[in-house]
Design brief:
elongated; single chain; mainly alpha
């Protein structure tokens, strides 16, 4: 079941991100707008677009979330492998994505302190930007 849904969500999220999907969505809205006078702007006419967009949005939330979860997990595995492979890297960072937000903020603050004071850090960033 997982493989089937993963393949399905990958295809749907890839297709939804294409320009043709946006053009199709705009075309549906334009058709709906043009048909307004034909249906005398009735409640049913409004209900059609409301129901359709709600259903599509509801389903796309799950499809896109699945794709983002897989992408995030793949990225995390790649970063963990880089940390593991580099001798000077600290293996303690592997798996920190499972910590709480507060714990992550503490680690971030500690790393920023390790980089030096604000002025040193600012100058290093300016040098890096100038090199581009």
């Amino acid at each position: 079941m997982d493989k089937i849904f993963a393949a399905f969500s990958h295809r749907v999220s890839s297709a939804a991100g294409q320009p043709v999907a946006f053009i199709l969505a705009v075309a549906v809205i334009l058709i709906w707008i043009v048909t307004g006078p034909l249906f005398d702007y009735s409640d049913t006419w409004q209900l059609i677009i409301n129901t359709g967009t709600t259903i599509v949005t509801f389903l796309m939330v799950f499809v896109i979330q699945n794709a983002q979860n897989r992408d995030g997990s793949a990225m995390q595995a790649k970063l963990d492998e880089l940390i593991r492979a580099v001798d000077a890297a600290r293996n303690d960072f592997i798996g920190i994505e499972h910590l709480t937000e507060a714990q992550l903020e503490q680690i971030k603050a500690a790393l920023e302190r390790e980089c030096g004071d604000d002025e040193t850090h600012r100058l290093a960033l300016e040098r890096m930007i100038e090199r581009r």
